[in-house]
Amino acid sequence: MSRIRVLIAEDEATTRQILAEQISLIGYDVVGQAKDGDEAVALALSLQPDVGVFDIKMPGRDGLDAAREIMESAPMALLMLTGLYDPELIDRAKDIGVFAYLVKPANAETLQASIEVALRRFAELQAARQEACDLKEALETRKLVERAKGVLMQRLGLAEADAFRRLQRESNNQSRPLKHIAEAILIAEGLFKPAAAVESE
Question: What pTM did the predictor assign?
């Protein structure tokens, strides 16, 4: 089984080296290191890694701008690092397709957990992209799926991965898009209004 290939983008050389050592320590291959957003995009396009671990604040193009271009051209599981917890940045990251968000300093244990989350959620986005016309539609589907997973996890006591497999199974069994299965669950839960109901209000 091939090892997970990771691209690091971090403008501070010492932090970049520490990240590379930690990521190697937990069993992943660091295939590239970028010092800014432009280099991150170039390396992503040429190396096609499985995971990107990007600092948000970098000179020139920041990590989120780099992530936006990468998700359009060379999608991967993306994990963002930042020095401060910022809800606005988290919302921007989610809209782009970032899958995990970690406040620095990150240790090997939290890095591993966050990379695993990013990989799992990236796989879910890829499943949504198979049904969607574009990345924006796939991201909207993923948001619905995230909410539907939460319902299943709460109601049925399922782990996150098991909840997603349950959604996929229902999608296959009913020959309906994943988005429609998620919407049906949210309607039943009372968290989602059909378009007709919204228009009649």
Answer: 0.70
